[in-house]
């Protein structure tokens, strides 16, 4: 059973009650099927009500769920014959970004994504999904390779942000991110990015200059974490819930502002409840996205990406 979140407490208590009655029925040969059935109906209604009316801070918690599927989970479900490629050919390999070549429904594609861990050991190995400069340079190397061979690029965004440590700054963190932004803007092959968890700051944007940007329903995409924003604005990180509301970081807000193209519905309770079913939802959106570019030439692909970002924002004189 996945770890429950604070807003899920009524659901958890009702599930526990149902389990207790089922165990009692089994142990005492008593028929409580009517009562159990009514509770299950009530549970279904309660889940629908709670998960359909989530606050921004609730979505932040779901996006950070330790069992939430990662880039590698989706790679295993969506792509055939995936071969991971390593290294930036300059400094080394960064485990916080994975990338390689595979087939999406018989079509060759390049896949790149942030990768966090699901336990302490893996999180240390992956630096908690926060890339160093060599991670972004590896991503760019794979993007340019994809451009050379005419492969579409699929990016999975899931990071709190680029690593802000001393070593990362010494090796040119800001330059590496900026270089990705510039180069991605001019790629001659289609780029489709999907925010599958947290999309934080420039660390996320370095994989986000795409023709299409999609988001899982309970993901977030922002210039800073709610805690960071609260610390800067109000000198109090405990006001992160209010910051999450004010920042408009959820998929519905971003779709309304035309920053993202499509919201991918999540299975009830979040993607971690059924990763395989969630991957099927992503597959449908990916297929439709890639089909959009089937008849588009290189100039049209670049122009499409340019127009997408030109339309973001509100201008006044």
TrEMBL record:
* Broad class of where this protein is predominantly found: cytoplasm
InterPro entries on file: Acetyl_CoA_COase_a_su, ClpP/crotonase-like_dom_sf, COA_CT_C
Q: Which UniProt keywords apply?
A: ATP-binding, Cytoplasm, Fatty acid biosynthesis, Fatty acid metabolism, Lipid biosynthesis, Lipid metabolism, Nucleotide-binding, Transferase
tRNA processing recorded as keyword: no
* Listed PROSITE patterns: COA_CT_CTER
Reactions the enzyme catalyzes: N(6)-carboxybiotinyl-L-lysyl-[protein] + acetyl-CoA = N(6)-biotinyl-L-lysyl-[protein] + malonyl-CoA
Family per UniProt?
Answer: Belongs to the AccA family.
Name under which the protein is recorded: Acetyl-coenzyme A carboxylase carboxyl transferase subunit alpha
| Organism encoding this protein | Sporosarcina luteola
